[in-house]
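ok, trying the design again with the full structure, not the truncated one.
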């Protein structure tokens, strides 16, 4: 989109405020925000104080692959949430937690839309996930999670649980913006 999406305002709140509130409502207390530079890190710290930790992307990185590879804390269940998916709320996060607890032997749970896996909304066991990606050259995350190591969660299950059809909508997909 060419702009800092975290600053886009919906219903009087920035997308980053919506994302952090969704984490807090879901009971997540360790929140890491990936930022592009020190200035953006300082803005986030000014907004949220000690509620969050910022991670500055390296200039020579492989995008989200390297962010995940170098920023995930070990031995944790981690929810990935892009700022441009404001409708993936605390109820959706808690649903993934419940399903993941039922399938603790796998690497993670991944929402699945009619477009296929939505890995930027996945929840993973960070140690298992890091072990998997440390052995691979970077590949599209959609391809990585399309295997038996990840439990797909059909979008209809998510929609029924949270009571609306917007959970997997993304501001980067123009057709997702038509309600």
């Amino acid at each position: 989109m060419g702009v800092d999406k975290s600053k886009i305002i919906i219903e009087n709140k920035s997308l980053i405020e919506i994302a952090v509130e969704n984490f807090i409502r879901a009971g997540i207390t360790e929140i890491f925000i990936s930022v592009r530079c020190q200035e953006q890190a300082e803005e986030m710290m000014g907004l949220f104080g000690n509620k969050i930790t910022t991670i500055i992307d390296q200039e020579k990185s492989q995008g989200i692959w390297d962010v995940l590879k170098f920023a995930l804390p070990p031995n944790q269940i981690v929810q990935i949430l892009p700022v441009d998916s404001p409708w993936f709320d605390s109820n959706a996060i808690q649903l993934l937690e419940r399903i993941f607890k039922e399938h603790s032997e796998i690497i993670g749970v991944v929402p699945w839309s009619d477009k296929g896996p939505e890995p930027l909304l996945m929840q993973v066991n960070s140690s298992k996930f890091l072990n998997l990606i440390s052995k691979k050259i970077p590949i599209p995350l959609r391809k990585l999670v399309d295997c038996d190591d990840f439990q797909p969660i059909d979008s209809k299950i998510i929609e029924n649980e949270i009571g609306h059809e917007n959970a997997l909508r993304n501001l980067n997909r123009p057709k997702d913006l038509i309600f």
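Keeping the full-length input from now on. The longest strand covers residues 108-113.
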